[in-house]
């Protein structure tokens, strides 16, 4: 098959309300949690989408931890590779024996009769506290962005932990296999920073022997890890998005993704600009008949490069392509590859170009507080006193992954320089479920369970449920990669069930019957996987900004418009400002 990062994101994006987009980590980049070391770990969408590794965000946690069997944590900036795992006396007979030898630390008795620590410097966390003591648990790796100081405070891990508690906690105790034995799921959480991935993969595959991996990884890391360990027959489920390279992997149906790929969003950008934005700028914003001047901000990571290239090839304005608009001097493009200073880009745009429309397929360089391009453009625009309308912005799923800096900026402009500021900003995002009741309930439950959580991480919660039911649906006592893939296909069509604790018994009963399949609906909506590739297909959506009546309090309207691929049109109730849709 083949088998993406931010739906909201890598997911695809991190949004601000329970009905919003999803953390498609490794999509956006997020600031460090209080008490964590700045930049300690980079990882995973948003959402979705697979994109730049993200810094640990508020409540997000970390990379290195205690070395196995009680060693010291690795120094900051090191990979945390603990070397050979500690072993106990040869001939261990049970996990419980190994845990006792390790003074209670999570440990595993291998088939070779050696005690192996489940935790090490790059995989510092194991959940839950009781499952690893069981006789025969199912080991699952879980990559996530983790900080060095507080790895357990991870917004990516919170929804996984909640789902695990529901599935493997006291109520159900794990998965009842065909042989009548109950097997709890044990999650081994590993940092997905670039200095940690290889060592973490070695620990998961060589030391522990996991059956599956929840792979919140950049596209290149996912491909490399899969190809290195392909012979192990391990199932990979990425909670985030894919690129075309991941989607085209010859992976024997072993790589699936919960979110889509860049090409899903290309028609959204194209038709949004041509059908809605350009007419709005000409007829409402006062551009009139003169040529429209557009700046495109490109990303440089794997997902961003692919999204940027595909969008650039499809965009038209002034009735012309990018190449034609370039000849007419109505286009400027910039690629944020780590060497480009947003302040310099802002200066060039204001002194040499003065754009009417700024389109972003880039990341946090655009929306970052204080030093991001938008902040620079808006600040310098006011200082220069330009007598033309401020630009309209179409933001990317990456930018939608962290809207807090933009909301702060809009709030300041509403009471100062631009009373219509919210009428100039929209974003392309992955589409959330048309019926968001399950997402709303998830958000409430997650906040009650983890006060520092983010409600738009439903793709992670869904991922563990899909994996659990695929393990069960395989109907073998020791399911491995191809068995789990077969189980995934049983979740795509049939009687409808929801993720969540209320339906667990009913789903198990349905899947226990040979030849049956179900439709497993998640917080993301129905299972919109391409069964041939395992990649989620996303219709795409548009979010916008508004203000509460009588106030300058900015809110985000998610799914303000949904893109209908069959008709090539937008549907919805766009309520943020008039005369746009």
Tally of DSSP helical segments: 16
Under the CATH scheme, which class of the largest domain?
Alpha Beta
**Percent helix:** 25-40%
Strand order of the largest sheet: 14-13-15-16-17-20-21-22
How many extended strands? 22
Termini separation: 39 Å
Question: Low-confidence stretches at least 5 residues in length (pLDDT < 50)?
Answer: 1-85
Approximately how much beta-strand content do the residues carry? 15-25%
Shape: elongated
Mean pLDDT: 86
What is the SS-derived class?
alpha/beta
For the sheet with most strands, the description reads: 8 strands, mixed
- Under the CATH scheme, which architecture of the largest domain would be assigned? 3-Layer(aba) Sandwich
CATH fold name of the largest domain = Rossmann fold
Radius of gyration: 24 Å
As for the number of domains, it is 3
- CATH superfamily of the largest domain, by name, is Response regulator
């Amino acid at each position: 098959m083949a088998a993406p990062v931010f739906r909201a994101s890598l997911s695809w994006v991190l949004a601000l309300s329970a009905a919003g987009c999803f953390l498609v980590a490794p999509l956006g980049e997020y600031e460090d949690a209080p008490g964590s070391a700045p930049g300690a770990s980079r990882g995973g969408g948003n959402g979705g989408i697979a994109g730049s590794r993200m810094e640990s965000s508020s409540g997000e946690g970390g990379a290195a931890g205690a070395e196995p069997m009680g060693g010291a944590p690795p120094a900051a900036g090191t990979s945390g590779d603990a070397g050979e795992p500690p072993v106990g006396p040869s001939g261990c007979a049970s996990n419980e024996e190994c845990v006792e030898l390790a003074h209670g630390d999570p440990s595993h008795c291998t088939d070779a009769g050696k005690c192996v620590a489940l935790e090490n410097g790059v995989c510092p966390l194991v959940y839950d506290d009781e499952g690893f003591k069981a006789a025969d648990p199912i080991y699952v790796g879980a990559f996530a962005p983790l900080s060095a100081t507080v790895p357990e405070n991870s917004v990516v891990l919170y929804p996984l932990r909640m789902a695990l508690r529901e599935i493997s906690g006291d109520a159900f105790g794990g998965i009842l296999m065909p042989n009548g034995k109950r097997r709890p799921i044990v999650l081994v959480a590993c940092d997905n920073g670039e200095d940690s991935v290889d060592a973490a993969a070695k620990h998961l595959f060589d030391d522990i022997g996991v059956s599956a991996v929840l792979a919140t990884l950049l596209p290149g890391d996912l491909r490399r890890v899969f190809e290195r360990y392909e012979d192990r027959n391990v199932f990979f489920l990425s909670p985030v998005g894919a690129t075309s390279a991941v989607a085209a992997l010859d992976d024997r149906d072993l790589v699936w993704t919960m979110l889509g790929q860049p090409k899903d969003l290309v028609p959204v950008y194209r038709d949004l600009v041509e059908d809605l934005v350009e007419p709005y700028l000409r007829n409402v914003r006062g551009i009139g008949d003169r040529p429209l001047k557009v700046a495109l901000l490109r990303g440089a990571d794997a997902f961003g490069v692919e999204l940027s290239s595909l969008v650039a090839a499809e965009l038209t304005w002034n009735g012309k392509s990018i190449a034609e608009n370039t000849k007419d001097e109505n286009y400027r493009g910039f690629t944020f590859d780590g060497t480009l200073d947003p302040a310099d880009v802002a200066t060039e745009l204001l002194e040499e170009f003065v754009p009417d429309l700024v389109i972003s397929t880039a990341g946090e360089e655009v929306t970052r507080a204080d030093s991001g391009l938008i902040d620079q453009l808006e600040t310098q625009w006011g200082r220069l006193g330009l007598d033309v309308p401020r630009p309209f912005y179409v933001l990317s799923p990456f930018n939608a992954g962290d809207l807090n800096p933009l909301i702060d900026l809009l709030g300041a402009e509403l009471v100062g320089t631009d009373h219509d500021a919210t009428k100039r900003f929209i974003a392309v995002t992955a589409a959330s479920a048309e019926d968001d009741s399950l997402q709303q309930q998830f958000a409430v439950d997650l906040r009650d369970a983890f006060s520092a959580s983010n409600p738009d991480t439903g793709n992670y919660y869904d991922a563990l449920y899909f994996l659990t039911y695929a393990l069960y649906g395989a109907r073998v006592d020791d399911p491995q990669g191809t068995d789990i893939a077969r189980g995934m296909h049983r979740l795509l069509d049939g009687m409808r069930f929801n993720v969540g604790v209320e339906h667990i018994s009913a789903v198990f009963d349905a899947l226990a019957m040979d030849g049956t399949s179900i439709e497993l609906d998640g917080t993301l909506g129905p299972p919109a996987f391409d069964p041939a590739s395992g990649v989620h297909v996303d219709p795409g959506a548009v979010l916008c900004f508004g203000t509460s009546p009588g106030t300058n309090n900015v809110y985000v309207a998610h799914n303000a418009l949904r893109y209908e691929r069959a008709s090539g049109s937008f549907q919805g109730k766009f309520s943020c400002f008039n005369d746009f849709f």
